[in-house]
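Checked the freezer inventory, then went back to the computational side. Two predictions to log before the end of the day. The first one is the construct we discussed on Monday; recording sequence and tokens without edits.
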Amino acid sequence: MSDLLAALLLGILEGLTEFLPVSSTGHLLIAQHFIGEQRPDLFNIVIQAGAILATTLVFRRRLWALATGLRERANRDYAMKLAVAFGVTAAVGLPVRLAGWELPETVTPIAWALILGGVWMVLAERLAARRPASTRITWTVAVLVGLAQVVAGVFPGTSRSAAAIFIALLAGTGQRSAATEFVFLVGIPTMFAASGYALLEHLLDGNAAPVAWDELALAFVAATLTGFVAVRWLLGYIKQHSYTPFAVYRIVLGVALLVWLPVGM
């Protein structure tokens, strides 16, 4: 397989899995195993930014309404809660990253994160279903969503979207679509900041491996286009369906990783 084709496939896979609660990290691990090449962290983070750009495009009207409607109390309150969630992620996540507190992106921890995360999703959604389907984003929800994003960063395979969406459901935002929208909007500054930080680290590292910018650009575009389709589909899907099929898929994928891929990979 050519390098450009491999980059294209990885970009498509990232776009499809970044927002579905199935762990893009686990899927990229499998893909890179079969491709036979481990991509640098910069590649993975920047193509995540392509997927986040897709979210920006999907929610462009919502973002514009928030930006131009800050005089309205509801918009101002919502924007401040987005800022708090992002601020918590940055304030807690940056020291965690600098301290190197992160499990390795190898089969065993990712597989177990997929399995345990799937079980957590089923239990969390059932508990949330017993509560009123509130669309309200509280300050508690904002703080917990910020912390959930940090946890997802420490434990590869957890899925940032899954961790944050289900903590929001349990914390009081009982309507799936409202919790999902808030988490996706928080993800925009979060992932753009992570990508910018990774790029800065790469540029300042004199010993960093050279980057194939053509491959990175192709994967970025692929992730953006497929991410746009995936987000639009998911937002429609969750209006009438639960997240349970994704939970089952995570568990099956986690077991498959443990059984078929080398432990040390």
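The second is the one RB wanted added to the comparison set:
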Amino acid sequence: MPDFSGTIWRSDMRPGNHGTVERLRGWPVTLTEGPVGLRPLRHRDAAVWRELRVRNADWLRPWEPTNPETPLFRSGLGPYISMVHTMRREARHGLALPWVVTHEDDFAGQLTIGAIVWGSARSAQIGYWVDRRVAGRGVIPTAVALAVDHCFFTVGLHRLEANIRPENTASRRVVEKLGFREEGIRRRHLHIDGAWRDHICYALTVEDVPGGLRARWLAERKQAFPRRT
């Protein structure tokens, strides 16, 4: 079972949560598993973030929500700085956990736990993207497993959703390999690539991974890819 001995509770009053909300201190934090890591966004990541976004523009465009504040290509670094300010503010208010995904300490993508709802829901949504150069190496599944365990066993969330376009088979494979259950179609859920797009809702609750998702994922990988002798 996961170890809760080091957890620290705090109370916080925020509009829209109908009173005092108790939640675990879970931010900022860096998480690692082998060559894969999650760490908070930094202002000095701006140049590498822009380089990755421009280089991966065609790879990412069909799957990402239309957002004029963070376009896939722009000559300046303003969109990144704006995004960092917004995400840091949301993290301070307990509404998001914005991470950089690293592979062998290099910036390789992003993973964000957003739209956090406290009160009786204790739910959130998970979104991610990865550099095409490291896709298929287990980077994102490992990062998602780390994030899920942190959200469930440290932050104190109960449910995480991933909403993915039906056509995005690579992203769907990530959550399916990790055991997220499919819960149906959300019609015209997000505006992406010029139109309102349907999404498949995948979800996990803490009861689904009593021993932790990271441990289960690593055990399954070891079984599927035993080390050669």
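For RB: The chain has a mean pLDDT of 86. The CA atoms of residues 94 and 116 lie 7 Å apart. Let me know if you want it refolded.
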